[in-house]
Amino acid sequence: MEQFEYPRVGETVYCETLENGLRLRVVCKPDFQRSFAVFAANYGGGDRRFRLGDDWIDTPAGVAHFLEHKMFDMPDGDDALFALSRAGAEPNAFTSSDITAYHFECTRDFEDNLRTLLRFVSTPYFTPESVQKEQGIIGQEIRMGEDDPDYAVYVNLMQCLYAHNPIRESVAGTVESIAEITSETLYACHKVFYNPSNMALCVVCALPPERVAEIAREMLPAAPGPVPEIDYGPAEAPLPCRAEKRVEMAVSAPQFLLGVKVTPAEKGLPLLRQKIVAELALRALAGHSSKLYQDLYKEGLVTDDFGADMDYASGVATLLAGGESRDPEQVRDRLLAAAEQVRRDGLDRAVFERTRHAAYGAWLRGLDRFDGMCIDLVDSVFGEYPLLELFSLLDEITPEECAAFLAGHLTAERVALSVIDPVSKEA
Amino acid sequence: MQRTRTELLPGVWLTALHTEKFKTGCLSVSLLTQLTRETAAMNAVLPFVLRRGSTRLPDMEAISAALDDLYGAVISPAVRKLGEVQAIGFFSTFADDRAVGEPVFAPLAREVCAMLIAPNTHGGLLRQDYVTRERDVLLDRIRGRINDKRSYSVERLTELMCCYEDYSVSHLGDEETAGAIHYQKLTRHYHEVLAASPVEIFYCGSLAAKDVARILTDLLSSMPRGELYDDIGTDIRMNAVEEDVRYFEEEMAVTQGKLAIGWRLGDQMDDPDLPALRVFNAVYGGCVTSKLFLNVREKLSLCYYAGSRLDLHKGLMLVSSGIEVENYDRALAEIFAQLDAVRAGDFTDDDLEAAKRCLASDLRAALDSPGALESYWLSRSLLGLDYDPAELAALIEEVERAQVIAAAQSVVCDAVYFLRGTEAEDDGTV
Q: Which residues 212-231 on chain B approach chain A with CB closer than 8 angstroms?
């Protein structure tokens, strides 16, 4: 196995691509009781139209998420979620717009649990009855999401920003779209997306990394498969389709999210670099240490849940900033004004150096969080970059690079704003 | 991992865990106060006001610059409710000294202690602008409780169910008392709380406990210590408020209903068998292999989530579930039926073993997380217990079926709360 050492932060990442195309990342932590493993498919809610042989296949919204729920059914009638839980592991799964991830944490019997994980995710077993039953459970989950202001504010923003991209729609689909899903849909999508060449296995554990590779070889199909080709629709224009969307819900104060489309950098180091540039730039401009945040906080325009981040999914990237505010338009305008000042004067050197130092500490502390580290490793596999190179990038990236990122993206015509207002009294 | 408990000053206790396995260090300081309606909001706002500035670092700008220089260390105001004790103070995580090869803890602890005992004042009073702004933020936070319907429904249940007990007070206080917060009165309250509260300090990191104790004792040497609150604790009610279960219902413009049910843990709280109670909760609704998850969610598809949790400080079990409004009767009946099943011993040895494994694994995993260890030890200190997570895991593994049945038989249902959604099904907001 290839071994990448990062002595400055005391970590080693073991990497291998197996004969079947599975990409493996292992970090060894022999001092810990706990192990964490995630087995993920490069398949999410946004991957709805794909090529199979010579044909393009369209699938209803919500298949990736539906598949995630049904993968736990095993042919012997058992349920993998319960099998792992009975063994004392803590299993779970999630589907985002771009990946489906199955994971568990445990403090004993790691090898057996890893085998169970690999077996159930690679063994499709669906019946019309079980699919029908799941429609009830997922229907409830969709309804719960509809009541969630955080979710509504995000989806509404994506609908402002994007004209075609499937990120405009909920990962879970709608009650109507999931009614179209059959066991055949699930088998077909499993076959296309869950072949080892389209998957990653990332583990933090006490076992030697070679042992993890052996178990993966033992449990998974030996032959590689084709990596599916996805269609996210026509290229999106740089400007939003709509500048603002407001809806009312049962909330105490307006919740807002603003966004800007960003052209994702090409996979590999450029992508990691773009992510870290954006992180440093947004921290320096609008992080809790920034003058902008502190002014807005003191004036009562934002609360401490205000934050800015990047979102990469469905072939697109979006700069996001949001929180709670009595006047979201003013927060947007102040953010734009701060970015304009950066365009004129650049980023303050002293502020930038502190930001760099703080980001280093935050990433360093993140190395203690196995779940977060494994998910970041999955993103790095599909984004084709060496994750822990970020510590060198934190040293390399210049304030000019970050200033250019802000000036190039945070301009009035590029921003869209989504707001959830409290239900008006007279309604 | 070596644990040391030391009294630094009268009523100021340090629990220090010495370990070299983390890159993250953790420090928390909690003043323990009695939760009451009159003082909860003032207590809740205090750490937020103190976090605005100290005599060393007078404002947010100075604080964040100093923390960024300390590898982005984080000092968060912390307000927690443990039974009827309101713990207020700071929770801090930082890059461990060993992981960056330079001192981080000592300079960080200096700032945390200064925030606590040497706030930025004006004419001897907490600054009016800080207090007014943080009062408004607290009010927003109190009003914002409705934004998360799941936790809101459980909070409403406990408010209504424990309406004659201080437990009904939110850890944030209520709008009325929060709205009345005034900087002069808050200053007096601050001095009283600072002098009279027992203090729990927690440290986890690579420094030796004696060095941590020495650094903190130095920094806190000028902390006023008066006559301590000696009666802080939680009044445990064993039986239900009325003979019959009380039913409460409220409406909100949401699509999904939220059902919350509360039980008193009953007479067993005289001398609680805590490992058995935890196993009972895990068998009933506390983990994936539980009765509630398997039956209400998986078998009957009545809900997206259904789970139970315990408050061992107060002696409560709370069940929470998200359901379609029309499934109310069926879901409620099934939740009660599953409890009856546990009481009747209608669970397999496999169910029991799975519940124990789940709890034991959670506890052992806590040994790998500074944050989980902090919360574990604060809770332990309040309950007056001394076993560490691994020892508790071992006790849990020894729990037998009869103990679980006995724990289940002792619980008494007190109240049911339903947050009824009034939005029509196709009237989605997205």
A: none
Closest-CA residue to B379 (of B81, B166, B104) = B81
Confirm or reject contact between A206 and chain B (CB < 8 A).
no
Sequence-distant (6+) residues with CB within 8 A of B338 are B284, B285, B291, B292, B295, B296
DSSP B232-260: ---PPP-S-SSSSPEEEEEEES-SSEEEE
Strand order in the sheet with B24-34: B2-9, B12-18, B199-205, B24-34, B85-95, B74-82
pTM of the model: 0.93
Check B143 against A170: CB less than 8 A apart: no
Question: For residue B294, what is the DSSP state?
Answer: I
Given A88, A255, A362, which is nearest B361 (Cβ)? A88
Q: Which of B77, B252, B37, B259 is nearest to B147 (CA)?
A: B252
Q: What is the pLDDT of residues A336-363, one digit of tens each?
A: 999 999 999 999 999 999 999 999 999 9
Contact between A238 and A80 (Cβ < 8 Å): no
- How many domains does one find in chain A? 2
As a residue count, chain A comes to 427
Kindly identify which residue of chain A lies nearest to residue B26, measuring between CA atoms.
A365
A401 domain-assigned: yes
> Does the beta-carbon distance from B23 to A149 stay under 8 Å?
no
The CATH number that applies at residue A125 is: 3.30.830.10
Q: pLDDT tens across B342-352, in order?
A: 999 999 999 99
Clarify whether residues A273 and A335 are in a common domain. Answer: yes
Query: Which of A219, A252, A267 lies at the terminal end of a domain, its last residue?
Result: A219
For A265, the domain range is: 244-422
- Report ipTM (2 d.p.): 0.90
Are B61 and A357 within 8 A, CB to CB? no
For B246-421, CATH gives 3.30.830.10
Contacts of B350 in chain A (CB under 8 A): 86
Q: Say if the Cβ atoms of A155 and B73 lie within 8 Å.
A: no
CA distance B65 to B86: 31
Is A340 considered catalytic here?
A: no
Return the bridge partners of B92, or none.
B27, B75
